[in-house]
Amino acid sequence: MNSKQLEGLNMRCSVCGNAIGNSDDFCPNCGALFEEGVHCSRHSTEKALGVCIICCKPYCATCGVWSGGLFTCGEHHGYEVLEGMARVFGGSDNAQVEYTKNCLEQNGLHPFVFSRKASPISLGGPDYSLFNASGEFDGHIINEYKLMVPCQEVMRAEQVLRKLGLVEAQRTG
Ligand SMILES: [Zn+2]
Ligand SMILES: [Zn+2]
Ligand SMILES: [Zn+2]
Prior knowledge:
The protein is α+β, with helices and mostly antiparallel strands.
């Protein structure tokens, strides 16, 4: 019997405060590593500093980085992340974003569309960071619809987007 136990719900990540499961060896929300003795997936002799929230592999201080309370590998640095969801697509054309969302859903993913107007975070909480994170949006694209997926689905989502020809030239720098 391996049913989930209620007390597991009370466990929280010591880094971000996110609720975590009993069996989690890292926090999927921020990438904090709870296990001792985990090594970098690229350098078998280096101690891992955290787990990339996008590709879920452990990395050392050379390969990964803590930035804004989130751990990512160098390759996956720079996504807009909010509450465990990462932006994979966006635009001011709601129909296109909704279409893309449907395509992701058909592939078994769990996308969610944030828009500045509809999103509860626009009500003015301290977590307004989603729309402040990227300096590129402070001005002309005010009502961007952001297509977010759980961080662990980003790589699969981007495969789907690539097939659709919708991969953006994003994450510069
Ligand atoms: Zn955490
Ligand atoms: Zn990664
Ligand atoms: Zn490394």
